[in-house]
Amino acid sequence: MNVPSDQRPSRNTGGRQPFELSFEFFPPKTDVMEERFWESVHKLAPLNPRFVSVTYGAGGSTRERTLRMVSQVKAETGVDAAAHLTCVGASKADVDQVVHAYKTAGITRIVALRGDAPEGPGKPFVPHPEGYRSAAELVAGIRRIGEFDISVAAYPEKHPQSPDWDVEIDNLKRKLDAGASRAITQMFFDNQHYFELLERSAKTGIRAPIVPGIQPIHSFRQISSFAAKCGASIPDWLAERFDGLDDDPETHALVASAVAAEQVLELVDAGITQFHFLTLNRSNLVLALARLLGVRPD
Ligand code: FAD
To answer: Does 298 fall in a domain?
Structure first.
């Protein structure tokens, strides 16, 4: 990424707020989890994010909950809400029905994904015989139904099922050409992977924003396990920083906030102005990162 230095946003923004943030949540399963979800939404909404998104459980298992949460977030906070949607195990007619339900509920943003095989992300994806076969097909299907603002997924370390970078970038381009306005990346912990993705995309003529998906490390153990499942690597230096901290939550939290700050500020120095934070329904680390960017509650 080469943004001329005089056009780069400054770390010290003086409250001008040049950064655009979005926050990702997952639909809570229990009453206790729902309480934490709302507490976090209410703490983060005053930061005026561009949108808040709610994920879609594997195989559509959260279909109703995702719709309920996005609708309520929008109604209760006034913040724009985006619903994730996958095409796993569903016919086109079923998926289209969900899109119609989003439209009826006034949801205008969708994060369109292929999804993974029910057996897990490592297993081959087998499309439903009458279903959408890829995210690119899903984007085109959503477009036929209405004027949605669509985001798609991008992978700084390549999707584990892509044989090479040419297939990977062609697929990303296909999704954007089908009608998506931006890509949001998978989590990554070495910014170099993201910078290389930007370069490869720019060379292929991709102009849409590729927004970094930032995963604050609330629990190194949990995030390492998520990362392994989705093909995001954990650099040795990162593992070393958290080594031995499983039983020391205070130091773990301090290291986590230093690591996330370092990652985000390096991206700021490279000229990045949009960030998508994976909150895991917690607000603390994200609130701290927003402050570093000069984004404060209204
Ligand atoms: P696609 O873009 O369709 O591509 C997947 C793979 O298939 C790529 O390797 C691609 O190269 C290959 N491919 C696609 N089309 C073709 C073709 N025609 N021929 C050959 N190869 C092809 N999962 C959930 O279940 N719920 C969520 O809410 C969710 N949210 C996410 C949000 C973000 C920001 C990200 C990055 C991921 C999310 N995921 C979610 C995970 C996602 O579903 C998986 O990563 C899935 O494996 C791929 O989805 P995709 O949309 O990238 O698929």
So the answer is: no
**Ligand 1 atom with minimal separation from the 58 CA:** 25
What domain count does the chain have?
1
DSSP at 181: S
- Angle in degrees, CA 228, 232, 233, rounded to 5: 85
Domain-located, residue 130: yes
> Which amino acid residue places its CA nearest to atom 18 of ligand 1?
134
Segment holding 203, helix H or strand E: helix 191-203
In this structure, the residues whose C-beta lies within 6 A of any atom of ligand 1 are: 55-56, 58, 84, 86, 111, 113-116, 121, 134-135, 153, 159, 161-162, 167-168, 171, 175, 184, 186, 213
* Ligand 1 atom closest to the CA of 160, numbered from 1: 9
**For the segment 241-280, what is each residue's pLDDT rounded down to a tens digit?**
999 999 999 999 999 999 999 999 999 999 999 999 999 9
Alpha helices in 13-153 (DSSP H): 31-44, 63-77, 92-104, 135-145
Per-residue confidence (pLDDT) for residue 60, from 0 to 100: 76
Encode pLDDT of 89-102 as tens digits: 999 999 999 999 99
| DSSP secondary structure of 137-177 | HHHHHHHHH---EEEEEE-TT--TT-SSHHHHHHHHHHHHH
Q: How many angstroms is it from 170 CA to the middle of ligand 1? A: 13
- Relative to the CA of 113, which ligand 1 atom is closest? 51
Query: What is the 135 CA–ligand 1 centroid distance (Å)?
Result: 6
Residues marked active site are found at: 24
Q: For the domain that residue 59 is a member of, what is the CATH number?
A: 3.20.20.220
| Distance separating alpha carbons of residues 14 and 109, to the nearest angstrom | 31
Which residue range(s) make up the domain with 200? 5-292
The structure tokens 């004027």 sit at 147
